[in-house]
Structure formats: structure tokens, C-alpha cells
Amino acid sequence: MRYFIAASAATVFGLLALLLFQSDVAKNEIPFDDEQAGLKNQLVIHFSHVVAENTPKGLAAQKFADIVEQKTEGRIKVLVYPNSVLFSDSEELNAVQAGEVQMIAPSFSKLGQLELLDLPFLFRDDDHLRSVFTGPAGKNLLNRVQSQDLKPLALWSNGFKQVTHREKHLVAPNDFKNERMRIQPSSLIEQQYELLGAKPVPLSFNDVYQSLESQQIDGQENTVSNFYSKRFYKLQKFMTISNHGILGYAVLMNMAFWEKLSSDDQAILLAAMEETTKWNIEQAKKMNEIQLEKLKTSGEVTFYELSGAEKEKWRKALKGVYSKAEQDYGSEIIKEIRNAGK
Ligand code: LMR
């Protein structure tokens, strides 16, 4: 009997203690770790890319992270991994499709559906680029990339490309003959260099510097910002300002991740992306201009700017690539891009 009374008293005491503990927690009187409690609601987006932080894409990725952080008061965190530290450009598409990261921003050349944006002289100027990237043609292009694994969010810019060489200016189409030119893995770019009589060498971005150093390639094409941030100017002393093509990116999210977000969070990310995209297009233009000036004053590189007549010769030599693109992508979308902003 005594044992029974003692056991019952212990149980009642235990229950009372539990009730008191719970009410203290409810009143927040028991100390707990705010950060740990907040982590349950925190959403982390891993964003991998291949270029330096101080480039139009690197800065836009960080800008997007900052806007999202500010709009959600830190609840959604975008962690940016630059310089291929997680994945190279040949790996990142598989990685995002498999959900190993949530976001990437590969160049158009690395996405078959958008390769047509590699057509030479397709874009008149920066205003034209802005009209395409942020207008109906851009939406159309993004829809082409959507799949069960990929949610496309925006098109970002890195501006216009120039060609460089280690020992001469490439001016006339004939100057390309037999030159080994690094290209991105794009069949349309490959065809352009073949039409010029060059030997196109597709290489990952993170292999370019070393291949220039070992003289496995003689020249390459890229924007001033990529050329500058990766110090290609140490090895490529001749730049032709050709503005013959653009470098741009599709910003992509893993579809399963996107679909799990609440509609409110999706709206926040889309608003942040719209703000970032507008900023990116301006920033890309400015950055290329500023870094071109820096290169000019550094004396590291000598420049040659193609005249209108010289560009016309390139256009003629490269005309054939348009028929292939029309066959592969249809002439409608090419026309839509050409007419945007007119
Ligand atoms: C390149 O491979 O040259 C570019 O696509 C790199 C980049 O992402 O800007």
C-alpha cells in the first residue's frame, strides 16, 4: 500500500512538472537557441556557376541572393558558388537536373535549345539585347528550355563577344585560316569557325587559360569581362573588337525544388529575379566598357576595331550558318528575335 501511494505521488509530481515545463516553453521562459529554431523554416538555395565573382553573372547571382535575403528577412538563403568550385560547365546541367544544386546559369551555347542565340550579328546593340531578354521573345526562348527537370527563370547577359589571338589581329575572314580557336560547345559556333577556315576547339571555360598557356589553342572569343577576370590578357595580346555575337545565360532552377515552394515564395523569387535581370543587363554593358578601358590603359593588349565594311565581310562569310539555324530552330523565332524592339 505504502509502495502504491509513493508510486502515485511520483507520477502526479512528474505530470505536474511536465505541465509546468510545457507552459514555460509556451511562455518562452525556457532559454532556447533562436538560430536552431529558425533553421527549421529556413530554405537554402545552392547556386553554382563557372565564372569569377566579379563578372556580370557572378555579380548578378550575388545580387539575386541579396534581394531574396532582404525580401524574406533571411528566411530564404541563396548560397553562390563561383569559379566552378562545385561543378564545371560540362557537369552543372546534370547537377541541377539531379537536384545536387538548385540553381545554375549556363551560357546559351551549353543548352541546345538556346544555341540559336549564338548566331553571328543577330543582335544590333544593347537595347536590342534588352528587348529580347526581357520581352516576349525572351519568354518564348525560356519556354523552350522548360522540362520536367528544369524551371527557367530568366535570361542574363554578359554582353558582346570579341575575338583574341596570341600573335596577330584577326581582321579579314582569311586571317582565321587554320587558327585553332577555343569555342564553347555550340554546333552553331563551331560551324562559324569552320566557315572562316579556322579549327574550332570546344573546351570547358575552366580549361581555357591552361590551353592558351600550353598553346594548344591560338585564339578564342569571349566578352571583355570574362577575358579580363580570367586574365587571358596575360597570354592573348591581340584583341579585335568585333561584337559579332553575344554571351548570355539561362538562369535555371531544379523543377522539383521549384514545385515544392509555396506560391508566395515562388512570387518572391520571381520578383527578385526580375529586379536582378534588369540590373544585370545594365551592369554587363557597364562592366565590359570599364574593363575594356582598363585593358587599354594597361598596355597589356593591342586593339583593332572592325569597320562597318570589315564586319560586312564577316557577315558574308558566315551567312551559311543562318540556313542551318533556320532548319534546326525554324525561321519564326529568328525573325521574332530580329524584330524585337523595332
Ligand atoms: C564560356 O564558356 O566562355 C562562358 O560560357 C563562360 C561563362 O559562363 O560566362
From TrEMBL:
Where would one find the signal peptide in this protein? none
Instruction: Tell me which Gene3D superfamilies the record gives.
Output: Bacterial extracellular solute-binding protein, family 7
Q: What keyword terms does UniProt attach to this protein?
A: Signal, Transport
Q: Which family does it belong to?
A: Belongs to the bacterial solute-binding protein 7 family.
Q: What is this protein called?
A: DctP family TRAP transporter solute-binding subunit
